[in-house]
Amino acid sequence: MVKNDPLRVPPEYIRSTPIHEGPERCLLHLSPEIPVIDLSKLRKGSTEELRKLDMACKDWGYFQLVNYGVEEQLLQGMKDATVHFLKQPLYEKQKYTMPMENMQGYGHLQVHNEEHKRDWSDSLLLLTHPTQCRDLSFWPKTPERYKELTDIFSSKVNQVGVELLHYLSVLLAMNKDVLLELHKEPQVYFDVNYYPPCNQPDRVLAMSTHSDENTLTMVLQDQNDATALQIKYKGGWVPVTPKPNALICNIGDIIEIWSNGKYKSVEHRVVTSKTKVRSVHEVFMLPGPNVYIEPLNHLINARSPKLYHKIRVGDYANVYSNGEKQGRSQIERIMIK
Ligand SMILES: O=C(O)CCC(=O)C(=O)O
Ligand SMILES: [Fe+2]
């Protein structure tokens, strides 16, 4: 777990080359071009907004979602409760320690990257849906409202995700329910990532470069973290400047596979800061472990041959295996050469 003393960075976190060096430049000037999608316009049937969503998923694999209709009071309540939880002494948080064999609870995720360096972050990871699969022993008991807020927050954001799946199904020339139905028994995880300040931001990453091994990720960012999350785009890194209370949404590997590469699961990383504490709330969706995934038949043709092998979600997604999380190594493993 990340130490409270930011001045002492243990060697297992320190990368051999500076983060901001190398061929991949920081493309700060492109930050305002990250697409912003207005869910209230999609709900009103705007074809222009639907076209923007299509372009966002093809080109960036990322977009900021605004006007999605979850009350600000709930978002603020969730953020405040998390600050309360994180500020508690370590022994309080260790009551929910993530065991080796289970990807739930509070802890330091195992991350493997080319240098075997660790990430400067802690996570609180909870399976929230299907509700009968919840393991409440990992859900924080303090502050008192944490369980209730986690339940409401993850359910509402998941509902937004379900709506997005409807629009994506239509854009992929299917009935609106198909992508959700392909999940069979959708799994939803709630995840808080906590990134304390770090004294060596030039050599330490808060989260290594990776793509998400799920279908959709929706992240509620802090307001003061302008350049922490960075997206790979046109050979460089574009920092995300979050709009107030926007959900930063990204396409995961499984949608890339279903769409036969039409929609992109884009690599991203999180950089550290010398002064700022950051925590984000994520909701991520994926099919049940026994679902087999492969490109959808109607998206395969002579001009667009099948790009990925069939695989069982439980053998693919990190969350079921605590496996490697390195760039796009996972999806590249199943690409048809
Ligand atoms: O901290 C963030 O903004 C994103 C974290 C992330 O990419 C992840 O948890 O997969
Ligand atoms: Fe991610």
From TrEMBL:
Entry annotated with the keyword Oxidoreductase: yes
Gene Ontology molecular function: any one: metal ion binding
Keywords, ordered alphabetically: Iron, Metal-binding, Oxidoreductase, Vitamin C
Transmembrane intervals: none
Domain Fe2OG dioxygenase per the UniProt entry, residue ranges: 185-287
Family indicated by similarity: Belongs to the iron/ascorbate-dependent oxidoreductase family.
Protein name as annotated: Fe2OG dioxygenase domain-containing protein
Source species of the chain: Crotalaria pallida (Smooth rattlebox)
Lineage: Eukaryota, Viridiplantae, Streptophyta, Embryophyta, Tracheophyta
